[in-house]
Amino acid sequence: MFEARLTEGSLLKKIIEAIKDLVQEANVDCSEEGLTMQAMDASHVSLCSLNMRHGGFDHYRCDRSISLGLNLANLGKILKCAGNDDVVTLKAEDEPDTLTLMFESPNQERISDFELKLMDIETEHLGIPNEEYKCTISMPSGEFQRIVRDLAVIGETCIITCTKEGVKFSVSGDLGNGNVTVRQSSAADGDEKDQVKIQMEEPVTLNFALRYLGFFTKATPLGSTVKLHMSPDVPIVVEYPIDGIGSISYFLAPKIDE
Amino acid sequence: MTQSKLSAFFRSS
């Protein structure tokens, strides 16, 4: 028996919104520790990894580890039937064919339940090394979203350069080129969540497809901060912490000169 | 510029 209850049901809506344009089908693994998901996009250049700890749920029970093969677009359709203030409960048997979703309005006046058919999904599981990155940038997620959106109008590839002073995002295209530099905040600058912080061992410059960075920014509503982890010649990690429960991380392979 | 694949960096398990 698997049962997981989230008082803030809208969180689940936001999570699926953050994944479904990148990944169509995925296995969500449920264990005593919580929910995890690892799925690549169709062209195998990026990967989305979701981690939700059991302690972040209001109620969590998982007697036996199970894997839920989900069509994320269909899950999104069902979650659209939940009100933004609804409590959402997920339920599945030990050898499930379906996932049951129950939505309860805050005053308990409306209770609905839906069953989503599960699928058998074969996936390639990538072993991601637990790497120490040369640069870790923490910045407001809204600012990152804006930069990616703005630069995508000009070109396809974004050059991200991280130095001690700041992070430079550069793009060039047929109409011209552009750069946005965000500088490290000084300690006195306002709110923690509005700050740009850079931890750096050595400067890093990498090229990435803006199209994919744009997919990742669908996770912006999940939190005020995004972290970018970069090392030379390895995929970037774009990590969105989800307050109190876990995180969504996106890995994107760099573009390389031929 | 070539878009590299993730599997080139991470081993499959």
Would you mind describing this structure in some detail?
The complex is a heterodimer of chains A (258) and B (13). Helix content of chain A is 14%, strand content 46%. By secondary structure, chain A is mainly beta. Chain A has a nine-stranded antiparallel β-sheet. A five-stranded antiparallel β-sheet of chain A has the order 5-1-7-8-9, covered by helices on one side. In chain A, helix 3 (141-152) runs antiparallel to helix 4. Chain A is globular. Helix content of chain B is 0%, strand content 31%. Chain B is built from no helices and two strands. The radius of gyration of chain B is 9 Å and the shape is rod-shaped. At the A-B interface, strand 10 and strand 20 of A face strand 1 and strand 2 of B. Strand 10 (126-127) of chain A pairs antiparallel with strand 2 (11-12) of chain B, so a sheet runs across the interface.
Give a quick rundown of the structure.
The complex is a heterodimer of chains A (258) and B (13). With 258 residues, chain A is mostly beta strands.
Features:
heterodimer, A: 258 residues, mainly beta, 9-stranded antiparallel β-sheet, 5-stranded antiparallel β-sheet, 20 strands, 14% helix, B: 13 residues, 2 strands, 0% helix, 31% strand
